[in-house]
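Possible regression after last week's pipeline update?

I re-ran a chain I had predicted before the update to compare outputs. Posting the input and the new output here so someone can diff against the archived version. Not blocking, just want to make sure nothing changed silently.
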Amino acid sequence: MSKPNIAPGSAAPTSSQPRTFSNREAEENWSREATTLTGLELWITPAKADDRGPLEQFFDKVTPQDLYYRFLSGIHKVDDERITAMVRDDDDSSIDFLALDNKTGDILATAMLVADPAFENAEFAMCTREDAKNKGISWVLLDHATRYAEAMGIKRLTSLQSASDVGALQLEREMGFTVRTSAEDPTHMLAEKMFGPHGRNA
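New output (post-update):
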């Protein structure tokens, strides 16, 4: 499969550097233009405090089914607590990347990463607006988030998905994730990708 036009990110931190997710650092070093395979021009950047309003507008346009796929719960509206978690920069274990339409500035998709205390494993969760699907946006955004996680020293990246979220599961398989049924709940699937000398991307 051909890859979209997206520039490489920064190098991984050295062993002497703290391994964290930083919105400010990522805004400087991991914000960039990208072009999807369908020719859509995007701006990929971490969420910041003034994105609260645009994120609220974004989720107002997300279908109930996609809200369920994103949060694996039957919420009808994304509350302030969840929005705050996406835009805060005082939590070194989480970061939320946004895919913006480079012409309008509208948020088309989000990808949140949350690392464990040891900063060895991280989970991701994505959401794309219904009217922005099938344009290659999710591919570009997940590729960006995956490369960022690896560069920051994450060894194992996972996502828990609804087994009925066929599109997301197909995307993850295409991008090299191993997908299997969750041991805790057969209605959920676990997507997993390993980095480092013992991973598939070594």
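Follow-up from reviewer: compared with the archived run. The radius of gyration is 16 Å. Marking as no regression found.
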